[in-house]
Amino acid sequence: MLLEYKAHYGPYFFIKFLDEHFKFKKFIFSKRKGLFTMVVILNQNAGEKEIRQMKEALEKYGCSVTVMKGRNHVVLGLLGDTSGINIEQIQANDNVDRVMRVQEPYKKANRAFHPENSVIDILGNKIGGKKLGIIAGPCSVESEEQIVEIAKSVKASGASFLRGGAFKPRTSPYSFQGLRETGLDLLKLAKKETGLPIVTEIMSADMIDRFVEDVDIIQVGARNMQNFELLKELGKTNKPILLKRGLSATIEELLMSAEYIMAGGNENVILCERGIRTFETYTRNTLDLSIIPAIKKLSHLPIIIDPSHAAGISWMVEPMSKAAVAAGADGLIIEVHNDPKHALCDGQQSIEPDKFDSLMKKIKAIAEIEDREI
Ligand code: PEP
Ligand code: MN
Predict the structure, then answer these.
(1) pLDDT digit string (tens) for 124-142?
(2) What's the CA gap between 71 and 241, in Å, rounded?
(3) Which ligand 1 atom is the nearest neighbour of the CA of 168?
(4) I need a surface site. Which of 94, 214, 312, 352 has the fewest CB within 10 A?
(5) Residues in CB range of 221: below 8 A, 6 or more apart
(6) In angstroms, how far is the first alpha carbon of the chain from the final one?
(7) Which residue's C-alpha comes closest to atom 6 of ligand 1?
(8) Counting ligands in written order, which one lies closest to the CA of residue 275?
(9) 305 touches 329 (CB < 8 A)
(10) Pocket residues for ligand 1 (CB within 6 Å)?
(11) Are 133 and 160 in contact (CB under 8 A)?
(12) Ranges in the chain, pLDDT < 70
């Protein structure tokens, strides 16, 4: 393009190039103020017939299409909902030079269409409002004594929800896999004793009926964030879903997974950052705190932080929790164990009840600065 300009405009080519370049940019980004949602740039050799065919093909998606003919390019500006458009298919057309999506591919999770924060109600306890949603408990349910004792202590320290894995996604098939359905029975028992709503992970769609019956927040673990069949099934329920970010998922991919659940009709989605894989090996994962302001800008869904899986080291849980609350997280999910040294799973990152109690006092003060409460 630069060379074309040079040939055409001679010594003035650069000024002309910049002029047209900036006009073009201005045109595309004018959508940010609500104009176009997608822009399709055709090749220079696209003739009238090809332009008409492409316009008609795009209109079939229900968008209105404006054709703009520049000196060098023909640009089609789309207005309306472009989330159903298959970009790869359009890009594969010989007459297309580039396609630019200006609107995000997620709709129901998008703050642009839902400016107010979503507040998820779980048996009267809310996540996404002024009060922080604090979920605490062991990585896995191990016994009645263990889960009931931990539930009582985290409740006394101010947690609003009890966590505990019954079905555990372990890297090794030889590691403890969780107490499975017995684990769900024990969680129910701990809920009966304390009144704390329970949060536990689902690994297979076969268990949905049981989870809908007995669980208050269904957790989708990092490893299942893109198990789209599971997400679609959860979309048919009306249970709050705690959707954890995949180990190598982008923020947009996390929001697209939320969109799967929401597209099915279940809008009760809580997002959770639990650390992502990077080149750093000192911590188990790298806690991406920048996801908090990013999600607040892009989406209306609440976002909570899991400092336990992110850091993988118990002494880092408190500083990471404080940072998360200061950055505007809607809550935390923290692994607490009464005997971390003998925990059947994730003992190295679990904090003891007294440590959880002092952490809660510290984050209470930070929450107040942020006009939040515990
Ligand atoms: C968990 O919460 O215990 C868990 C396995 O989390 P993640 O899916 O984030 O690894
Ligand atoms: Mn764990």
Answers:
(1) 999 999 999 999 999 999 9
(2) 51
(3) 5
(4) 94
(5) 169, 201, 203, 244
(6) 58
(7) 221
(8) 1
(9) yes
(10) 139, 165, 169, 221-223, 244, 274, 306, 309
(11) yes
(12) 1-35
